[in-house]
Amino acid sequence: MGLIGSTHCIGMCGPLAMALPVNTKSKWEKLFLALTYNLGRVTTYTLLGAGIGAGSAFVIPAAWQSSFSISVGILMLLSAVFIFVLQRKKAIQILPDKWIKKVSQLIASRMQSGRNIDVFLIGFLNGLLPCALVYAALVTAFASGSVMNSMVFMMFLVLEPCLPCGVFYFSRNGLPRAFDND
Predict the structure, then answer these.
(1) Is residue 19 in a domain?
(2) Would residue 37 count as lying in a domain?
(3) What are the pLDDT digits (tens) for 11-20?
(4) Other C-beta atoms lying within 10 Å of the C-beta of residue 100
(5) In contact, 123 and 44? CB cutoff 8 Å
(6) How far is CA 17 from CA 30, 57, 149, in A?
(7) Are 52 and 138 in contact (CB under 8 A)?
(8) Cβ(125)–Cβ(43) below 8 Å
(9) How many CB atoms lie within 10 A of CB 35?
(10) C-alpha pair distances (Å), 150 with each of 34, 48, 56, 164, 176
(11) Could you tell me which of 30, 40, 8 has the C-alpha nearest to residue 120?
């Protein structure tokens, strides 16, 4: 999902990462909390990968993997066009508002504490918010046909953009200023 995935993550998740309660922390606490936040995201996506991989291991025989992968790719493209057209006409809603509101409220309730566990939970909950890139990754993970492959794929979905996202996160006030506290 590469560089495009990184830019997508910065644009979509960057504001949430920039809102993390780290302003009064030392440079090492900021770094630790950024890693804790991303560990929460890694945990969510790895668990999603385990679930989707377990499902695919039982549903798709190994001999059908390549045909299934091509079919799923075509269906993804068709569904994206279909959803785009219907959403523009306000004919469908992808996820119920209640789900998005509940996850958003849980994130907001943890934003002010700055405790390590809350920063982890913010990252974990962020992984449960709607994201087209994650949906595409889950379909790809499903096509892998094994629990381990799906978990590793989903884990790297998060780890790969961490470097550009981390640079963006720490440079929000200028990289040198991010480490001025100590």
Answers:
(1) no
(2) yes
(3) 777 777 777 7
(4) 15
(5) yes
(6) 11, 34, 28
(7) yes
(8) no
(9) 16
(10) 25, 9, 9, 23, 38
(11) 40
For residues 3 and 160, is the Cβ–Cβ distance under 8 A?
no
- Please work out, in degrees rounded to the nearest 5, the angle formed at the alpha carbon of residue 96 by the alpha carbons of 157 and 152: 15
How many Å apart are CA 51 and CA 163, to the nearest integer?
Answer: 27
Number of C-alpha atoms within 13 angstroms, CB side, residue 95?
A: 13
Distance, in Å, from the CA atom of 169 to the CA atom of 141, rounded to the nearest integer, reads 28
Tokens read off for 85: 């057209």
Q: Cα separation of 10 and 5, whole Å? A: 9
Question: Residue 22 falls within a domain, yes or no?
Answer: no
123 Cβ contact partners less than 8 Å away, ≥ 6 residues apart: 36, 37, 38, 39, 40, 41, 42, 43, 44
Instruction: Determine, yes or no, domain membership for 124.
Output: yes
Distance CA 178, CA 182 (A): 10
Domain span holding position 75 = 29-160
Tokens representing 88 are 């523009």
- The tens digit of pLDDT for each residue in 101-159 reads 888 888 888 887 778 899 899 989 988 887 777 877 888 888 777 889 889 988 888 77
In contact, 143 and 42? CB cutoff 8 Å: no
**Structural domain count of the chain:** 1
Question: How many other CB atoms are found less than 10 A from the CB of residue 108?
Answer: 12
Alpha-carbon span 114 to 68, nearest angstrom: 45
Classify the C-alpha dihedral 133-42-71-82 as positive or negative. negative
